[in-house]
Design goal:
This protein has 228 residues and is of the alpha/beta class. It has a single domain, classed as Rossmann fold. The chain contains 7 helices and 8 strands. Strands 1, 2, 3, 4, 5, 6, 7 and 8 form an 8-stranded mixed beta sheet that branches. α3 links the parallel β4 and β5. It is globular and about 50 Å long.
């Protein structure tokens, strides 16, 4: 995955910038896309602050035709299972037909400042926002794109459904700049070893979600470029 300083400042016209918060979300991002001259990728870091800094720096380097903000999202709508692909796009983007054909669902997103950990917290967000899914970066990325008159879309995969509690409170394990503190993580696991099976199950679930997202993005990008 690409950091801001590695973006191609001479990218071809019509280039798409695909953003992920962390590398784990892009684990199955298609090799076709990584090798394509008109697709650039960017890992922004978690949270609105990191996403804002990264996308602003990227857009100073070059001007993509389209920005996609991709990765995991927590389910708020009880109808959305883990692994479901959900999306939102600016009207002119024109990916909706392809995405619906790929079984993705049009959705609304709430951009939060913290991870929604419990099903109770998710229910409260669902009732207060009526958003279908929650994540932490797309809102600010798309706001900045709109200000610069760059089309954008959100394409996310549900990593955990509305009825699921996360195995740990990941907010308590993050540093001030929204990076997981692995020393804290190891300490928390060591103090609660009975949580290990749930953590392993969640890891398998997020891996499957990332694989599903990668497959959908592969088919979507192939369809987009094949029809040009």
């Amino acid at each position: 995955m690409t950091n801001v300083g590695e973006l191609n400042s001479e990218a071809e016209p019509g280039t798409i910038l695909v953003c992920f918060a962390v590398k784990e979300e892009a684990k199955f991002f298609p090799k076709l896309a990584l090798a394509h001259a008109r697709i650039e990728t960017l890992v922004t870091g978690m949270g609105a602050e990191n996403a804002s800094l990264a996308i602003r720096a990227a857009l100073e380097t070059f001007s993509p035709t389209l920005v996609l903000t991709c990765g995991f999202a927590g389910g708020l709508n009880p109808k959305l299972p883990a692994g479901a692909i959900v999306f939102s796009e600016d009207p002119e983007v024109g990916l909706a037909r392809h995405l619906v054909e790929l079984s993705a669902a049009l959705a609304t997103f709430h951009c939060a400042r913290r991870v929604a950990v419990t099903c109770t917290e998710k229910k409260q967000l669902w009732e207060s926002t009526r958003a279908d899914a929650v994540e932490m970066e797309s809102g600010v990325i798309r706001e900045i794109c709109r200000a610069k008159q760059i089309s954008s879309a959100t394409i996310r995969v549900i990593s955990d459904s509305a009825s699921e509690d996360l195995p740990l409170d990941f907010n308590a394990l993050m540093s001030a700049d929204y990076e997981i503190n692995f020393a804290k993580l190891l300490l928390r696991v060591a103090s609660a070893p009975w949580k290990i099976p749930a953590l392993l199950a969640f890891q398998r679930q997020t891996t499957a979600a990332a694989r599903n997202l990668g497959e959908i993005l592969d088919k979507l990008l192939r369809a987009k470029f094949d029809h040009r």
